Amino acid sequence: MNKQTVAGLDIGGTKIAVALADTDGNVISHTRFDTRVELGPHRILDRAIEEIERMRDDTGTRLVALGVGCGGPLDRARGLILSPPNLPDWDEFPIIEIIEKRLGIPAVLDNDANAAALGEFNYGAGRGMHNIVYITISTGIGGGIIINDQIFHGVNDGAGEVGHITVLTDGPMCGCGARGCLEAICSGTSIARRARERLLAGTQSSITTMAGEINAVTAKVVAEAVRAGDKLAAEIWDETIYYLAVGISNTINVLAPEAVILGGGVSTAGELLIEPLRRQVQSRNTMLPPDKINILQAALGGDSGSYGALILGQSGIAPKNATKPDGSGHQ
Ligand SMILES: [Zn+2]
Fold first, then answer.
1. 8 A C-beta contact, residue 144 and residue 105
2. Exposed/middle/buried for 205, CB within 10 Å: 0-12, 13-18, 19+?
3. Dist CA 185 CA 87 (whole Å)
4. What spacing in Å lies between the alpha carbon of 238 and ligand 1's midpoint?
5. Which of 2, 102, 241, 301 has the most beta carbons within 10 angstroms of its beta carbon?
6. How far apart are the CA of 146 and the centre of ligand 1, in A?
7. What angle do CA 143, 147, 150 make, to 5 degrees?
8. How far is the CA of 175 from the centre of ligand 1 (A)?
């Protein structure tokens, strides 16, 4: 009989990642391709399923389960994607039903940040730990909390929204409708917006030249300008670290995780971000000794989500040993 495998599918607004592992969790194949959002949900999912079938056939294995990570909002219990901002036309899209019918195997859905948290927890920076907080800092800021080896979903799957912790009570409006959320100041989009505002107000900086024009300024350009010694970029970066430290300190005070793991595009700045952040969080958190405060960069880059989705897939066939996706029992 063919070896059994589980697939993990991570659907993002720009990239789709797929991983295939044996039932012990050893990854045997993985790939990534562009999402091409303009194709709409059905054709995008068709393409992903074809890719999974190709990987299954190339490895000569028998697929027995699949996990899916996707940007929210979504209805995990009903297996529906509910209009994520980065996936236009995915309105009440019954992704789990379609996959289960097409492939004839059980499929499990969770949001992309929870999937990425599971990926880092099982394969990346959180290996060997039992309690972690994963935070992705990219266009937005998302989070996933793992407590005692399980994703903590909370009421209405609302847990882990680290991006919407208030860090500045009268701060800028956030997409969620509140003011001064961490995401409204420190996401990649917000870092770029703050830089553009100061440039438009007339502050001199090499950021504009590096980006080509003000509208092309991104968080990545700001980070590059920090390394090049630009004064405005350094100010924006320091503010970003200050507010991230506030948000992460609050999170640590509540959960005391073994590590806070940072993923997403902004985290690729590496030690430029992590070193000062670690220092500030350690000096803010007086309730824990500094050596118990771990802030780590994610280890898997763009593969955290698909590797974590593998674990979701596993949970569909071995619920005793993994996250319980139906919300029953211990969360
Ligand atoms: Zn918010």
1. no
2. buried
3. 23
4. 21
5. 241
6. 22
7. 90
8. 6
Q: How far away, in angstroms, is 172 Cα from ligand 1 center?
A: 10
- pLDDT tens figures, 31-90: 999 999 999 999 999 999 999 999 999 999 999 999 999 999 999 999 999 989 889 999
Between CA 42 and CA 37 the distance in angstroms is 11
pLDDT score of 222 more than 90: yes
Tens of pLDDT, residues 278-303: 999 999 999 999 999 999 999 999 99
| Residue 329 in this model has a pLDDT that exceeds 90 | no
CA dist., res. 23 & res. 30, Å (int): 15
| Residue 204 amino acid letter | Q
